[in-house]
Amino acid sequence: MLLKKKREFENQKGKENILVQSSSNKKGEFQVKQKLLLPKVLLYKLFLFLTPKEINKVIRTLNHQYLQLISQQFWNVRFQLRFQYYNRYNPLQFDDLYQKFKFLQERRSKGKLYQVCNRLTGQQFVLRELDTIKANANHNDGVQTSVLREISYLKSLKSHLNIASIVQVKITNHIVSILYEYYPLNLRDQLKQTELSIEQIKSLFLQICQGVEYLHQNHILHRNLKPDNIFINNKVVKISDFGMSRLETYPIIPYTPEDPKERERSNREVKRLWYRAPEMLFRKQYYSCEIDSWSLGCILAELALRSPLFGGKTEIEYLFEVFQFLGSPDENDWNSISSDVKIKFPQWRKYSLQINELKKNEIIDIVQNRKQIYEKLITLNKILGNDGIDLLQKLLCIKPETRLDIIEIVQHPFLNAFSQNTQMYYIEPKFKEYLEFQTEINQTMRSTLIDWLIDVCIHFELMDETLHLSIIYIDLVLSTMKINRKDLQLIGVTSLKLADVYNERSKEYFKQENCNAYAYITADEYNEKQIIDMEQQILSILDYNLTYRTPIQFLKIINSKLKVSNDSQMLSYFFCDFFIMGYEQLIIERQLYAICCLLLALNIKNEKINSSQQFQFTEKDVIEAFDRFYNVWQFIKLQPQINSLEACMQRHKHLNPRDIQLNIPPSEFITQFLG
């Protein structure tokens, strides 16, 4: 039997060789396309005639030869041409297209990192493979917060010269594969290899600041700036590793405090500690872009010293070095960096970092008590000069509010550059009028689903932004994928779970069971596996981008800037929740939607405000949006199935919402507001 298979295989192989040789005619080309064997099929047939020992030897030999091939110059010619020819007839999938050839590192919560190359082009990348089960204490709860945020932030940003980018994302079962650009040299390695001139220091630091400026203008806090996460490619800086990044909220909410690490820190965690702002280590929960300014100060000093400015294996050791260098905190400093924790440190006096400004007795005091500090000061002053030391001193301020912001850093005389003034980039969700092809759902079902989601948000104590994000995800999915009626609630609950994990305070320090909680809230109509499977479908439809500006975010920003009264604010938030349940509002831009909700509230409360803001909308745009609002109002009021809207009314019960009447503002009122 085995001999018969061998003869059949040899006969087939001979025929294929003939077909390949006669591929110049169209018929031959078609036959080659049909008969060409896949590598896996070919290997399978070969292995039929080999012993396990021979198979092992063949694999080792092929692997060794392949590693030699990719390190040689003709990889870009012969080897690529063969794969390109094969790809014409059998397009390579993700796993076959990228060949792993070097293992880099592994971390339980971050997965495995490999250096890979594209078989068609020879270009090298970094592949990260994360096991969501292993990362969450052997329980699959879907994609974790840090991964969702990193992918989403980089997907939402336009390409920037100094920001590393994600090439491709793929999720298969419980394995998340992320393909990054590959850069062989990071800033720490660069500093070990070469001593930088002052011009090189300025060039590198300016590029780092320009990358951070772009992030801050788009309200993204990096929160993990350090030389290991800054790469250099042909003298161009690339900022990477957004696993700890966070979208800045407005108004600022309590963020997840620093992990206390009740164990010995790893070498990687120790290095991250050296660039943390002091208030982070005192578990301050309200902070903003000033934490990145501190990290930039540490990096600037390291560019000159070629070694970290501050060290220490523990938080207390690190804080000792910081206060020894800058001076111990006074009462005002403590109020800024910690609200309830005050540790008694040795009383080190504060001095100017400018050597030429120090008095003789101050120099003697530093030399006697802090000799290493004085040596660092001499080196920093010698390399950075007066302007560089002035910038460093304004970045390494213990009081967060006194640190320079990123625009002031770029415009400082040391860098003497112009701010990019990059316009904030908002991705407007592109909805379709999906009820034209969704045959099994209607407006009433959509409104009922959203009212139920409001009830879930009340139960789980979720933020307003989380609710509105989930509704955007639902409408984007319905605009793309035709669904059955029974899947509507599954899409709704999964979208809310995604928005929760992405937008709420991260709880990655502990085992997560969000899928279990969201399955339970549906009265076990769906199980955890169904929610995880739907999550992967939704992420694929959204192209893994979860970052959208919601109407409630715009509304809170406008209310704060215009100093709207509290009564009008509360009423505008009710309108924002109420009209989001209407199908006709989908084509209204999210910022215009927020403006209309505010105008309705101001008109009812008879509060006149001249915005003096340069809104991009005209009076005609506002009136057209109000027409759609009126249609939504009439639809909901006339539908007995959804007229109750119990959850929405309960959420805003302090306003007596059932007594509120829709009163469209007159054109004069709109004109005055728009200025």
CATH topology type of the largest domain: Cyclin A, domain 1
- Biggest sheet strand order reads 1-2-3-5-4
The backbone outline, from C-alpha atoms, is: globular
Largest sheet: 5 strands, antiparallel
Question: Structural class per helix/strand content?
Answer: alpha+beta
Question: How much β-strand is present in the residues?
Answer: 5-15%
Q: What is the domain tally?
A: 3
Rounded to an integer, what's the Rg over CA atoms?
30 Å
Extended strand count: 10
Residue windows where pLDDT falls under 50 for at least 5 positions: 12-38
- From the N-terminal CA to the C-terminal CA, the straight-line distance is 89 Å
Mean pLDDT: 83
What is the annotated CATH architecture of the largest domain? Orthogonal Bundle
Q: What's the CATH C level of the largest domain?
A: Mainly Alpha
Q: Count the helices. How many?
A: 29
Helix content estimate: 40-55%
CATH homologous superfamily (4th level) name of the largest domain: Cyclin-like
Domain Protein kinase: 83-415
Organism: Paramecium tetraurelia
Keywords: ATP-binding, Kinase, Nucleotide-binding, Serine/threonine-protein kinase, Transferase
GO molecular function: ATP binding; protein serine/threonine kinase activity
Structure overview:
There is one protein chain. The chain starts with a helix and ends with a helix. The protein has three domains: 50-181, 2-Layer Sandwich (Phosphorylase Kinase, domain 1); 186-410, Transferase(Phosphotransferase) domain 1 (Transferase(Phosphotransferase), domain 1); 434-674, Cyclin-like (Cyclin A, domain 1, Orthogonal Bundle). β1 (98-107) and β2 form a beta hairpin. It has 675 residues and is of the alpha+beta class. It is 52% helix and 8% strand. The radius of gyration is 30 Å and the shape is globular. It contains 29 helices and ten strands. The model is unreliable at 12-38 (pLDDT under 50). It has a five-stranded antiparallel beta sheet with strand order 1-2-3-5-4. A three-stranded antiparallel beta sheet has the order 6-8-9. Keywords: ATP-binding, Kinase, Nucleotide-binding, Serine/threonine-protein kinase, Transferase. Pfam families: Cyclin_N, Pkinase. May form a complex composed of at least the catalytic subunit CRK2 and a cyclin.
